[in-house]
Design brief:
two-stranded antiparallel ribbon; Glutaredoxin; 9 strands; seven-stranded mixed β-sheet; 28% strand
Length: 159
């Protein structure tokens, strides 16, 4: 499958709100590294496992001065409940309009009840301090995902 965004590309310009309602933009992530992961829905088994794994490894991300940001189509109230119920320690961006997801080329279509229905392809990007995409995993297999992200961060920091 061919994608619009690839390793070596510049971070797309975006603006959205975080789980507290504050605006967050691509300018806010410059200075990286940034781990930006896209997931389908709060409080579902795979998404919860992925988020909790990022939470549990946050000290490792901190060692790289990396910021973790999750993005899904859920609203701020859903994100806030997700954060509270699982003790998440990183930012979640709302993308109800799918604008950010489309810029990162993670919106896919599938047939449901005879209609095309958009869904988010679980995808993770590592973005360096200059806004260059250095690593992508898509589609993400949740099992061992955080460890693969940390390995990629380590390898990119050694360059």
């Amino acid at each position: 499958m061919s994608y619009k965004l690839n390793i070596g590309d510049q971070l797309p310009t975006f603006k959205g709100k975080d789980h507290t309602g504050h605006y967050f933009s691509s300018e806010d992530v410059m200075g990286g590294p940034i781990v930006m992961y896209f997931y389908p829905k709060d409080n579902t088994p795979g998404c919860t496992k992925e988020a909790c794994s990022f939470r549990d490894h946050m000290d490792h991300f901190d060692a790289f001065d990396a910021i973790v940001i999750g993005v899904s189509p859920d609203n701020a109230q859903s994100h806030e409940a997700f954060i509270e119920s699982h003790g998440l320690n990183f930012t979640l961006l709302t993308d109800e309009s799918l604008d950010i997801c489309r810029k990162f080329d993670v919106v896919k279509e599938r047939q449901e009840n005879g209609k095309n229905s958009p869904y988010i392809e679980r995808t993770t990007f590592i973005i360096d301090s200059r806004g260059i995409i250095r690593w992508i995993e898509r589609p993400v297999n949740v099992e061992g995902h955080t460890e693969r992200v940390l390995k990629a961060l380590k390898e990119s920091s050694e360059r």
